Each structure stands twice: as C-alpha cells, then as structure tokens.
Amino acid sequence: xxxxxxxxxxxxxxxxxxxxxxxxxxxxxxxxxxxxxxxxxxxxxxxxxxxxxxxxxxxxxxxxxxxxxxxxxxxxxxxxxxxxxxxxxxxxxxxxxxxxxxxxxxxxxxxxxxxxxxxxxxxxxxxxxxxxxxxxxxxxxxxxxxxxxxxxxxxxxxxxxxxxxxxxxxxxxxxxxxxxxxxxxxxxxxxxxxxxxxxxxxxxxxxxxxxxxxxxxxxxxxxxxxxxxxxxxxxxxxxxxxxxxxxxxxxxxxxxxxxxxxxxxxxxxxxxxxxxxxxxxxxxxxxxxxxxxxxxxxxxxxxxxxxxxxxxxxxxxxxxxxxxxxxxxxxxxxxxxxxxxxxxxxxxxxxxxxxxxxxxxxxxxxxxxxxxxxxxxxxxxxxxxxxxxxxxxxxxxxxxxxxxxxxxxxxxxxxxxxxxxxxxxxxxxxxxxxxxxxxxxxxxxxxxxxxxxxxxxxxxxxxxxxxxxxxxxxxxx
Length: 477
Ligand code: ADP
Ligand code: MG
Description:
Layout lengths: L4 H13 L4 H8 L3 E6 L2 E6 L2 H10 L1 H12 L4 E6 L11 E4 L9 E6 L15 E2 L4 E5 L18 H12 L9 E5 L5 H15 L5 E5 H13 L3 H9 L3 E5 L8 H16 L3 E6 L11 H7 L3 E5 L4 H15 L5 H10 L4 H17 L6 H11 L9 H12 L4 H4 L5 H17 L4 H7 L5 H17 L1 H15 L2
Parallel strand pairs: 2-3, 8-11, 8-12, 9-10, 10-11
Antiparallel strand pairs: 1-2, 3-4, 5-7, 6-7
Helix pairs in contact: 1-4, 5-6, 7-8, 8-9, 11-12, 11-13, 13-14, 15-17, 17-19, 18-19, 19-20
C-alpha cells in the first residue's frame, strides 16, 4: 500500500484549500511541490526561504493538521528550500521543521462533564479521557498581543480601556467592555490582547475567546443533544468571557436569551465580559432591549480608521515582527494608498511580499503600484492629495509642512502650484478641497496655479522637466 508523496500532498492541499482564502492558497500553497515520502516524513519543496518562513509563521497549525490527517500523529514535514542567489548551485537545501509557535495559551483544568463544541486545531483534545474533566483552551491567538497593537488616535480609548480591564478583570466599571468599529479595524486583535494579558497576569483565571457565531452553533448543538444545562454551566464558570462579533446575535432570540442568562450570572459573580461588535449599540437591530441595556452597563469604546502615521507604524511593526526589510518609500506608498482598514493594509503588504518573493523581484514603489492595481480591490484607487504633496516635496527635498505654510518663497510657491496642478489632474477633488489642503487657498488660487503650470511648462524647459518627472513618479506610467 505504498503511497506517493504527490498523492499524500494532493490530499493535504485539498484540506488546506478548504480552510483558507483562495488568494492565500494560490500564493502560498500552489507553488509547493511534493518531493518524497519516507515513512511518516514528507518532504516538500518551497520556492524561497521567505515562503518557508511565511508558512512557518502563519500556517504551521494548518499544515500540521493536514499532514497529521494524512499520515497520522507523528507525521513530519521537511522543507526543501530552493535557495535564492546561490549562483551555480542548484542543489536545494533542506531544513527540518522547527517548532516555532508559542505554546497555546492554557487554562487550568476545570470540572466539566461534557464536551462543549470541538476545538479547532490539533493540539489538544478537549476531553481528557478517564478524568471526565474538561480542559478549556483559551482559543487566544498568541500573536494578537497589546505589544503588537499599535496605538493611535483611532483606538486610544478602546485600547486603554482594554488595558485597564486586563489589569483588573471584573474589577473596573468597564464591565462589559464593548468594543465596536468597522470591519478590519482591529476589534478581534484587541479582544485577544485583553485575554492574553489576563492570562499572563492571572494564569489561574479561565479565559475564553469565542465568536458569537460559534457560541450560537454550540448552543444549537446543545439543544439538539439535550445538553443545554451543561452548555450554560460551562459558560458560567468562565472568569473572562470574550465574545467576538455580537452583532451576529441579531434576530436570534433564543441565543440572546441564553446569553442573557450567562451574562447576568457572570456579571453578578464579578466576572469580566468583553464584547465586540461591528456597529454601535444603538445600531444593533434585532437585539432585545434588555440585552442592549446590559451592553450599556459598562463602557462602549469605538475604533476609528487609522490615520496615516498609525498606518505607517502598523506596517513597520508587521515588518519588524516578521523580520522583513522594506524600503521606507514603499512602506509610505502603501500607507498612503490604502486607508480603508488595517486588514486591507495588511493584505496589500502580504501580496507585495509574495509578489516579490515568488517572482524574485525587488520590492519597489513600482512593484507596489502594480500590485495594488492588480490585487487590491475595493480600496479607493485614487491618488490622494496627501500623496501628491509628499511626492512633490520629496522631489524638491523640502518638508511637506512648508506647502501648507503662508510663505511666498518662489520654490515653495512653485511646489505648491505643482501640487495643486497634479491634484486637479489626478484626483476627483474639487478646486475648493484642493485649495483647502494646500495652505488654505481658495478655488481661484488653484485655478490660477493650474494655468501657471501649463504656461510655464510650455515656455520653461527646466520646469517642463519637473512636470514630466513628477508625473512619472505619481502615475508610474
Ligand atoms: P476586526 O476584528 O475589527 O475586523 P481585526 O482585529 O481582525 O479586525 O484586525 C485586522 C488585522 O489588522 C489583524 O491582522 C490585526 O492584527 C491588524 N490590526 C488592526 N489594528 C491594529 C493595530 N492597531 N496595530 C496592529 N495591527 C492591527
Ligand atoms: Mg473581527
């Protein structure tokens, strides 16, 4: 019954494909080739060291699940990496899989007669056989720490409230703490940070992160299996309950009822509850009034879209965590171009890294531009006035603040006029908006600037070069 490496890997791939986005699958897994199978060790070839590191950092759990499923408990994965830049040396190098991930965050053992739901991943069976005790895994993502959560104006209140809660779970007036904000703005990350911080400070506390959707599913299962009491008891013994995306309780009356019961119990016993929602409490339709009023007992803190500085800081942090170097102008280009959400920003960064690694291309602003055009959907594709200001100022080697100042020095006036000219050409902003952003000028000044630039580029050769070079930089045409 000999199986080939390809056959095993093919099954692994189809398992993996079911568990991640198509884009991630195509980017990271399709380029992998199965090389050989020796007993329970499968060797796969990855296209670059970067891919290997990325897989290790982000997909280790999934890979383990897939391979264990195919080859059994003590299955091993060995990477063979095609080394970059080793001239004349095509012999692939082999590295053994190291166990990089921090251990899952454990809770103390607690008495519990039945299994509640299943646990994702492969590390730990929920039920310890024989003991009839349940081991609650916190389900916390060890990467989502406070340390990794960049602070900015957009999240200051929520972050510091979260931190206060983590210091004294159940002991502040922030109970429940409700974090709300649009998609991809960092609710889930912040919620995990609170849980992780609590586990670090109070290892004896039982912390549980669960999405409202999963909770609903477990509840439905418990009804079907006639174990609703166990379900309720299980949740009532949690010390810190973190419930993500409670907006999904909308319209689900039975689930809301059972959550209400659990919530009251926890709250009365001084346990901490942390909730997240993609909309403000007032906008939560289909939510029972009594539940809504409970949500308002504590603190509601919102997350806003991050400003430019925060976006840059977030990108730098991600790069730092993954040990990747990237030219500063590319980091800034990404941060300037993508403002919709942190998730989009991260997605763009990942696509860019993948593009550069797979096609062995240097990471440049140009590559970033192509990538954003091709891969990033639904983000505002328009060049921003901010970005134009930055490119123009970099070009003339002057600080952007000068553009907005009142000064009438020739070079600065010129840079300001060029900025206005390109803002008019390349954005959909109105003359008034452009003027307002370029030192509080009115629309007539912007019109005048456009005319001046047109005239000058016809009569002044050097000026014409400026315009051409700047246009190139801005549009990368
Ligand atoms: P939400 O739950 O609001 O949809 P997530 O918490 O899943 O958003 O965040 C999306 C991604 O953005 C995550 O990878 C998260 O780590 C990252 N992220 C969001 N906010 C920040 C921040 N302030 N600092 C660092 N990373 C962030
Ligand atoms: Mg989320």
